[in-house]
Amino acid sequence: MSMKYYKILEKIGEGAFSDVYRVRDRVLGTYFAAKKLREECDNIDDPLLCSEVNLIKQVPSHPNLLTIVDVMHYGNRLTLIMELMDMSLHDFIRTRKRALSENRARRFIFQIISGLDHLHRHGIFHRDIKPENILIKLAQGVEKKELVQLGDFGTICRIDEQSPRAAYIATRWYRAPECLLTMGYYGPKMDVWAVGCCFYEMITRQPLFPGGNEVHMLDLIHGLLGTPSKALLEKFKHLNVGKLEFRKHCPEDFRLLLPLLSAYGLDMLKKTLAYHPDQRISAARLMKHVYFEDVTKHKKLSKFSLSFQCLDKGFRQSESVSELGVMKGLKDNPKLSTWSRDSIASAHIVHYFPNEGQSARNRTLERLWDMNNTVEKRNLCKQIHSQRNRP
Fold this sequence. Notes:
Elements: E1 6-14, E2 18-25, E3 31-40, H1 51-58, E4 68-74, E5 77-83, E6 87-88, H2 89-94, H3 102-121, E7 124-125, E8 134-137, E9 147-150, E10 157-158, H4 177-181, H5 189-204, H6 214-225, H7 230-233, H8 254-257, H9 263-272, H10 283-287, H11 293-296, H12 321-332, E11 337-339, H13 342-345, E12 352-354, H14 355-368, H15 374-388
Antiparallel strand pairs: 1-2, 2-3, 3-5, 4-5, 6-8, 7-10, 8-9, 11-12
Helix pairs in contact: 3-5, 5-9
């Protein structure tokens, strides 16, 4: 690899179709990442040659998309000069001893969705969203936030391209049901599914659906979302439902799976993991989800606003005077107790935890993420959940 204007410092990565180097501009002294494609290229203007070159011609730059600053053609091969980031999200998660806090994960995922929405608005979808393809520039100085960008646009596809598309696309663990069940009948909503999988991985340090093969993947998905009905399966195009037989699973309560996650966070996650793409939220609507209100409006949400009480914005107006009095007493005296969503949802009973019980419950929940036994973890979650709903 020889480049006139850049000095090669070290190799920092490689993939199936390229090698990545850290380079320095010989004149300015600025550091960049140079991605050298292995496929031969005779004509740089060939529109079918390099999807990443086509991307910068069709999509305006965006702060949450990796910037390609130069394209060089040497020895019948293309080299893309890109902004140098510090690490991938995968490395960021794996080098930490604990999972990301919910606030940090929310900031990260909002930047990912912002870049994704920009792609979708310009008629492009990524097709390979995963932690390895999400890049991070670490914060510098006090009160500065990490910059998160989508990278590796080697598999991008136009939304208006005729189906069926390439059947085997995206990394298996982040592949949406429509990619597993059909032969190329998928669209931009597959990116949203992968975003939900990445969010789960940020707050648990574990992949959501680590399937060994496609059948195993579907079984894991059904274990969380429940086995789809025949009517739902029939909605998938060019799918022979008669030959598909799945083991029966009941849907799992997301609150048992992620007991520490706020109500808005659970709602956002469930919307990204809807089984059928028509029922799944779009990137544009996801940008406006109330979960990101503090990010978009630069204000801090209170703990109460992130709790289950506020998930349903409409309070029941038919509570009795005595119930309203008890609720008001709990709110006016926060040292007495912590009240649950059931306090509002119930018609006749107010449930609450004494502060001592709430603190003990929180300590128990914190220990959940240090457990290696998933079955034991979920059993303990169910036990805590039942105690919470006890009058």
